[in-house]
Design brief:
Layout (H helix, E strand, L loop, with lengths): L2 H13 L6 H27 L10 H27 L4 H26 L4 H17 L2 H23 L11 H4 L7 H41 L9 H13 L4 E8 L2 H8 L1 H18 L5 E6 L2 E7 L3 H17 L2 E2 L5 E2 L3 E7 L6 H17 L5 E4 L4 E3 L7
Parallel strand pairs: 6-7
Antiparallel strand pairs: 1-3, 1-6, 2-3, 4-5, 7-8
Enzyme class: transferase
Organism: Acinetobacter defluvii
Catalytic activity: 2 GTP = 3',3'-c-di-GMP + 2 diphosphate
Length: 394
């Protein structure tokens, strides 16, 4: 695998959240849990310093819960430290993941009970967290915790309907006895808890969508690149020709084949043959114009697509490539060098010609170049073959 392919694959595996290990995802969950507790702390501190709204809350419970929130943050930080220092251990990635996710779910359930099982904040947060969980973690972990959460919520709903336990105990009975939607404090509290979850969910899914789109573009790029030479492959080359055909743009195709390439493989090994192909690819890339397409067409064959160019200019580019290849021997580790040459075939197209015809002209010109002694550029216009000489004007 080439450096380009390795770089792309390493980026994909290291940056996409879905590719993270379970424990890395769990650390993210723990951080979110800490942020949730911080939201609670800010809300409760605001209530404590605002006597006008004490009538709407259970103040003693809020003060106790404030201490619980602080202790919970300390415990969550400890869990993060445990996860960080043991993230390479298999049992941490598996069993500890269940523990962390279950802990997070229980925190959500407790918070949901305090603000009200049927409250918009609880329902919205439950749906959002479930959706994110299904994206991040395996179905086993999510469905296991979903069963736990559903069971506990069902019990809490039953107990509240039977008046065995109070509904939304963090609010006062005075607030709950009235129409909640008419109470500004309750409405603003719901908005306060929903908006952070909404933004966090949108940010998370936007990040995943961005990484998914970027990953798809990288995979598409990989599908267009020859892994050895890092040139475009045959599939991409044909797509570009079809684009030119749709635009009714004429183009010139140059096919080149390395002379006696089998001898290099047989005498020096396939590793040396690969090195030769890589060197030729670099030579072609720096010799042609920036607008030209260079691709590996198969084996030791390369193909060039030149548009908006005259036949004489194309022949000069082919000759320059041929000469550069011949003048730059492949140097081996033992200071030995291999002289490499290539034969070129040039085929013209017109707006009414077919893809097969242009390729056939270039292929026939290449075959004629090999039959005529190799290491030369031949042009075929459909009727005659012409060997290119630098001083010849077409």
């Amino acid at each position: 695998m080439t450096n380009l392919s390795k770089t792309i694959l390493n980026y994909i595996q290291s940056t996409i959240i879905m590719r993270w290990t379970n424990i890395q995802k769990c650390i993210l969950v723990l951080v979110l849990a800490i942020l949730m507790h911080l939201l609670w702390i800010v809300w409760k501190l605001y209530i404590i310093i605002t006597p006008d709204i004490w009538q709407w809350v259970n103040l003693p419970l809020i003060k106790k819960q404030l201490q619980v929130n602080i202790i919970s943050i300390i415990c969550l930080i400890i869990l993060i430290c445990i996860s960080i220092f043991n993230f390479k251990k298999d049992w941490v990635n598996y069993y500890f993941s269940y523990f962390i996710i279950t802990t997070f779910i229980l925190i959500l359930i407790l918070d949901g009970y305090f603000v009200g099982i049927y409250s918009p904040a609880t329902i919205f947060t439950s749906v959002c967290v479930t959706g994110i969980g299904l994206v991040l973690f395996s179905k086993k972990i999510i469905y296991f915790n979903l069963i736990i959460a559903t069971s506990i919520f069902s019990v809490l709903i039953y107990l509240t309907t039977q008046n065995t336990i109070s509904y939304a105990p963090i609010f006062s009975s005075k607030l709950l006895s009235n129409t909640l939607y008419h109470n500004y404090f309750w409405v603003y509290s719901m908005i306060y808890f929903i908006i952070p979850v909404l933004f966090a969910g949108l940010l998370f899914f936007e990040l995943l969508l961005y990484q998914w789109r970027y990953r798809e573009s990288l995979f598409e790029k990989i599908s267009q690149i020859d892994p050895l030479t890092e040139l475009y492959n045959r599939r991409f080359f044909n797509e570009k020709i079809n684009e030119l055909k749709e635009q009714q743009t004429s183009y010139i195709i140059i096919i080149l084949d390395l002379d006696h390439f089998k001898t290099i493989n047989d005498s020096y090994g396939h590793h040396t043959g690969d090195a030769a192909l890589i060197q030729i690819a670099k030579t072609l890339s720096r010799t042609v114009r920036k607008t030209d397409i260079v691709a590996r067409y198969g084996g030791e064959e390369f193909i060039l697509l030149l548009s908006h160019i005259t036949i004489h200019q194309a022949l000069e580019i082919a000759e320059k490539c041929r000469k550069t290849i011949a003048d730059e021997p492949l140097k081996l580790n033992n200071e030995q060098s291999i002289h490499i040459t290539a034969s070129f075939g040039v085929g013209m197209s017109t707006t009414d010609s077919t893809l097969d015809q242009a390729l056939r002209f270039a292929d026939q010109a290449l075959y004629h170049a090999k039959q005529s002694g190799r290491n030369q550029v031949q042009l075929f216009d459909g009727t005659t073959f012409q060997k290119f000489h630098p001083k010849t004007i077409y």
